[in-house]
Amino acid sequence: MKGYIYIASAFGTVNRSPCGQAGSSIDNDPHFWTSPPTWGICRNDLRAGANVGDFVFFVLPRHGRHPQMIFAYLRIAEKITHVEAFARPSLLLKRMGDKVPNGNIIVDSTGGYNKLDYDKHLYKFDKIKNHYAVGDETASRMLTSKEIQALAPQFVSTLSSIVGVSGSRAIDIISRKGRILTARQVRLLLRWLRRQILSTTGTAANGAWHIKPPHRACGRDTLPRRARRPSACRLPDRF
Fold first, then answer.
1. Which stretches does DSSP call E strand in 60-181?
2. pTM for this prediction
3. Which pLDDT tens digit goes with each residue over 101-114?
4. Rounded to 5 degrees, what angle do the CA atoms 12, 18, 23 make?
5. How far apart are the first and last CA of the chain?
């Protein structure tokens, strides 16, 4: 078992916005909006090397709606292709559509590029389509905005201590391209997260128990066109 941690620069918020609300665009990868949690588009270079049982820690950008902090973690239960993911009834809500949040299965019914990705990741479609990670629902979790706010002040110093790299910013420790974690580092990071979440909320944080249940997604008639388009995955800025 190993881990990965990277800054998901395109991810804006862990909150769901009402249909039609200004700025209501919600990023779709990693996809914790319906169960099971999945990771299928961003950082395909990391996902290609990941194995079943590995953990992935997703970090918010430095300048966003929430303070910079781990906003979710996922234990990989299975790795499949996007074509295989599209065919699974259990992943039906992960298919792309004219909705917010969008799905993160990038193929259409023919196995080709889904036009509802709006050309955001067309340039690397051939690489993305080969790797789709399905998370273990009992060992994956998206944090709430309250939890992020409470844990953020300790995040950089704790990560620095666990990884053994000094730095005053998350990017100094993680780097723009992300970082591979040892099994020991994964265990220490999970222990810190779970203990701190328990002390903050009084609720154990062993799994993704709080993932929002499936619901009717906002569609074409209720959202401005700009809000319906997914964000493009990108490496974080250096500063």
1. 70-80, 99-100, 132-135, 141-142, 179-181
2. 0.87
3. 899 999 999 999 99
4. 40
5. 32
